[in-house]
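For concreteness, we quote verbatim a single protein encoded this way:
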Amino acid sequence: MSATPFDYTPLLLAGLPQPVAKWTGLAKYNFTGGNNDADELPLDGLIAAANAVLTREGRALATYGLNSGPQGYRPLREFLVTKLKRDAGINCIADEILITSGSLQALDLVNGVLLTRGDTVIIEQECYQGSINRLTRLGVNPVGIPLDNEGMRIDALANALHDLKRRGIRAKYIYTIPTVQNPTGTILSEPRRKEMLKLAGEHGVPIFEDDCYADLIWDHKRPAALHAMSQSNNVIHIGSFSKSIAPALRVGYIVAGWDVLSRMLAIKTDAGSGALEQMVLAEFCAPHFADHVPELTRGLRKKLDTLMEALNEQFGTAAEFEEPKGGIFLWVKLPDNVDTMALYQPALKAGVAINPGPEWSVNKAHGKSRMRLCFASPSHDEIRRGIAVLAEICHREFGVPARISNVKRGDRPRRSGTGLTVAFGGECAEPQRIGGSTMTYQSLTPGQMEARTARFNKLQTYQRQNFEAHDIPQGAVEKVTARKVYPVMAPADYQGRSAGAPVKGPRGLIVSIAECEPGNGPGLHRHLNTVENFFCLCGRFEISWGDQGEHKSILEPNDMISVPRGENRKFFNISNEVGRLLVMIVPETDQQIDPITYAPSLGQEIENEYGKKALEGLQSIGFKFEEPVG
């Protein structure tokens, strides 16, 4: 007769988190966690490093701490001294570094010596879930600071610090992920770093700098770490090898003065972090780290492009996101009626795992319609298929997206004369009359849609390859193009250009969505043979045209204007939010190729700032100027 199983429930500590479900394997399309790209793992190098270091020093494993003491394997700490100086500007010595079991243990140690129940900390509004959960379990009050495209907003930080001071509260620290923020992918600008340090000093609050993603910047250019910029030793800095080498190795580190490290060592009661991992990393990283990281980021950047293209294709304007400056995550905003916590389970049931936004924000209402997608682990094909499945589930559960590939779900566009029906991004159900033609619907075959989708998917890749091949700096490109151009409709027999890439469609109408940052817009240009119609989807645009730009009009959302052919025209986002402008080009002649011509003053500006080679590169791929420059 079997005994009754012992019941531990009455003995459990009050306030424990809910029990986790048994692990049943990863989802088919897994966009969660901080997993990295398995194909970019330097496996051969790690195997060689393991063989070499174990052959040379393996018997040191018989001693706790590898004869290096409780702070970790000394050769690894010495590598970090060199790396942190080279990459982040941090001047430190090996005795100011503590090796930890991943950055999560670093978080626990910092919290363990600074926080107690009822304390207050300042944290980014959207932030790492592991940090948020730890504060919740400790009973600490997090004050969330909103972010923009330059990271934490310093005006909001100043207001929060002043408000706390007025209430007699001193925050225990300012927690920030300033260099490739999680989940937004932003980088705190150098001026803001200076302002943050100034505010921290004025209010007597230390800064807790989490730099775990800083190695994964696309252009490998980063501001100095806050720790490096501090003049008063008021910054505790942590980092990790999880994103640059491998997350399963579980090796992180803390950089701080001995006055703080000595307190952390007193509560680090694990007898030392994994020794073999430290030995292998030190052996591999000293000769190979600087070469490995650029290869890793190139692969990650390609996967990000695939993810953004898949979202544009499947969700259209229903998925909003800012292109991250590095890392492995994309922070996506869906329409307000979508609850990503409610989306999680049906998506998982269909094989797609996402991170719902409320889990990554201290403002749950702000995160409700947002989600974090990790693009590092899935393959390119899995990314495309997974986003397609997610769009179907999201449409079924919330009616979003209403369109797929920018075409209304359940309908397909058709030609009528020289026109096409176009969804303007709102609830625009009635056919629109453009260029003298009424546009209506007609089904396309699956083959036609597949061919069209494949062509659109190549747009961003084509642009980037062209720019790199012709040595065109991104800044020069931005002077003559919108930040992004989304092709909406361009069937097969039209030959034209859109933002430096060939776009095909019928003579009579070509449509794209241009996206511009606040206070930004493409350079002055001319369409020699076309009428250009502008429809404001969001933001607020100033449209100007005429030889001297003497004609002007302001477009509010849902406003539309038609500009005659041959005229100089410019559109400029004058709002304080990202603006999107639907651009409909209607050729008036039989001319099949419509060159876009820019003002010579713009060409001169590009040449002065970036050099003649950049100007020639632009001209070689179709950015023409009205007359020779220089």
Summary: The radius of gyration is 27 Å. Residues 433-625 form a domain with the Jelly Rolls fold (CATH 2.60.120.10). Residues 404-445, 451-459, 489-508 have pLDDT under 50 and may be disordered.
